[in-house]
Amino acid sequence: MILSRGQKVPITKGRSVSELVVTLEWQNDDQTIEVDAAAFLLNEENKCSGDESFLFYGQPISADQSVKQIKQGDNRNETYLSLKKISPAIQKVAFTLTIHEGEERGQNFGQVSSLSLRIADKVTGENLVTFTFGEELTKETAIVVGELYLHKGDWKFSAVGSGFFGGLAALCENFGIEVESNEDKKEHLEFIHSPPVAATQEAVVPLTVTLKKKEAISIRKSEKVVATLEWKSKKDLDLYCFYVLKDGTEGKVYYRTPGHAHKEPYITLDGDAKGAGKETIIVHKPSELTYVLFSAYSAVSNGIGSFKSMKAKAVVDNQMGQRVTSPLFENNKFAYWVAIAKIDFTDLHDMSVSHVEKYSKSGTERSPLLYNDGSFEMNVGPIEFK
């Protein structure tokens, strides 16, 4: 099965497969670029329980011998997993790639091509998943390629393909492996094969927070922001990103106008879910924007029902280990629109993520509008039909 970014598929459900091979491959013309693969064995809190849960070329085998990494030359890495042997404490395995000393050397994944992941049944050789990715990457030095995770007793795979800044150190902090910038810690973790913090960047404190009603929080302004609309319902929701550029240009990115990564508005929508699940917006150049507003639209065909009952939420990730979730608190069964979260990019170093939860009038399909000063208004935009 060929996957696109954001897709999730079953691996073991309906199959008698217990031994997997996960292959990561890439190409780079510059032979000085060193790409390293790693795997993080995560608990139910999405964290490593200790250094032993981090597998890389210097520590390639898990403590229970269930996961093993083998580097196959300079452009390929294989991870072997025995699903029956994996500890019950391990709920997810994250597969990653990093560039050794990428920030120091001015190297990034924009210089690496043909990135791919394949999952095969080790016993039969059957190819179960193929995922190619990386076209949207520019200056990132680390990637969470995908995640193999347990769901109701079966293993599934999520094609993530998200880039990070800060190299392996940023990934380690994101997954709960403590990395300090002092020399003692650097010597203790010298096997990591990556600088504790990028030489040109100030350390960023990892953060995972869920906003309260009308609450706002400031996180580090990064070079790329990923925002997702997530929900648990069979109904079809659509993620809209209303934006204001630095020059005052106003607009929106949604399923009919998916945007552009390398020109205005520097925002892209990663597909239309057309059902329950998740839709993703990528802000490729936060420095070119002043405000964005994330809203959800429920198609008329969905009928009535509150966005809260669908467990809809917006998640903003600065790709530096800081993630903010904006949930919904109100039961509004008759609105087609809800504005969920807003980001203020006007500060030089930080960005403010606000919970804004505001609904359209009953039965009204007119969309919200975001204005130059960062304020927004419901029920005044174009009428949407789907």
Automatic annotation (TrEMBL):
Q: Tell me the domain of life.
A: Bacteria
Protein name as catalogued: Tellurium resistance protein
Q: Which residues form the TerD domain?
A: 3-175
InterPro entries reported for this sequence: Stress/Tellurium_Resist, TerD
According to its UniProt entry, this protein's organism is Guptibacillus hwajinpoensis
